[in-house]
Amino acid sequence: MDRELACEIVKDLLPLYVDKMVSEVTGKSIESHLEHCADCNEIYHNMIFHTEGEKQTEEVSDVKRFLNKTKKMYLLYGFLGLSLIAILVCMIVNLAVNKGITWSLIVASAVGFADVLVYVLLTCKKFRLCTVMAVISIGTVILLSAIQFAGYCLMGMGTIWIFRYGFPILVLWLLILWIPVLGGTFLKWNIWYCGALFLLLTIAGDYITKLLIGDYVWNDVLHLRGFMSNAFGELIGSILLGVIGWIKKRK
Questions:
Q1: pLDDT digits (tens, 9 = 90+) for 103-134
Q2: Are 17 and 30 in contact (CB under 8 A)?
Q3: Of 100, 149, 190, 237, which sits most exposed with the smallest number of CB within 10 A?
Q4: pLDDT digits (tens, 9 = 90+) for 9-34
Q5: 92 contact partners, CB below 8 Å, separation of at least 6
Q6: How do residues 183-210 score in pLDDT, each as one tens digit?
């Protein structure tokens, strides 16, 4: 380019010039213009300053992400290492004292459950609450099964209670936990509404649990007074949380 570039053209080309996306001839023309044009030169230096600032911010963000990821990795590895040591120690003691694997099976199941839960909490980013609930649901089923198996089959203690009491009560309370979680995740309920619903569901859960374990019977009406007095606190708490959630939603 032999002609001097106009300021308007240079200003339009400056972003490309800063990013080094212009031809050699255009670049020389812009440099020639910047040597004697104070206004364009000031705009150019401002662009350089902001570009370098953005690059530094991106570099700092990358470093922070790397450090957070490294911190989580070492925390997870440390937790897993301690868990393995705890399981091995329990199994060695169990073998030495009881001449077999009995109660250490329960310990191993509980520690493994905790390890998976910690891993999900540290690594899961999308639908974290639902994923945590899924881990809790599966983990509690496995842990309950391990307790029944170790107690009845390996240690010869108690009876087979898991099908009559264990699983029905577990499924009931997992359902009570899942409903508010799904409401908050997919229906976008606030935490106050979820808490209010949870307290309401605990009233029904407590009643059904007592029916399952035999504290109440279906044809017994006299227990309703005691049940309602026990449920009164949950009912009041549910109403208060619901009111707070309604106020928060209107703001």
A1: 999 999 999 999 999 999 888 888 889 999 99
A2: yes
A3: 100
A4: 888 888 888 877 888 888 888 888 88
A5: none
A6: 999 998 999 999 999 999 998 898 888 8
pTM of structure: 0.69
Spatial neighbors of 208 by CB under 8 A, at least 6 apart, are: 172
SS (H, E, C) the chain: CCCCCCHHHHHHHHHHHHCCCCCHHHHHHHHHHHHHCHHHHHHHHHHHHHHHHHHHHHHHHHHHHHHHHHHHHHHHHHHHHHHHHHHHHHHHHHHHHHCCCCHHHHHHHHHHHHHHHHHHHHHCCCCHHHHHHHHHHHHHHHHHHHHHHHHHHHCCCCCCCHHHHHHHHHHHHHHHHHHHHHHHHHCCCCHHHHHHHHHHHHHHHHHHHHHHHCCCCCCCCCHHHHHHHHHHHHHHHHHHHHHHHHHHHHC
What CA–CA distance (Å, rounded) separates 78 from 20?
47
Sequence-separated (6 or more) residues with CB below 8 Å from residue 198:
176, 177, 179, 180
Please check the confidence at residue 60 and state whether its pLDDT lies above 60: no
Tokens encoding 86: 């705890």
- Structural tokens at position 220: 């017994």
Mean confidence (pLDDT) of the chain: 85
pLDDT of residue 16: 83
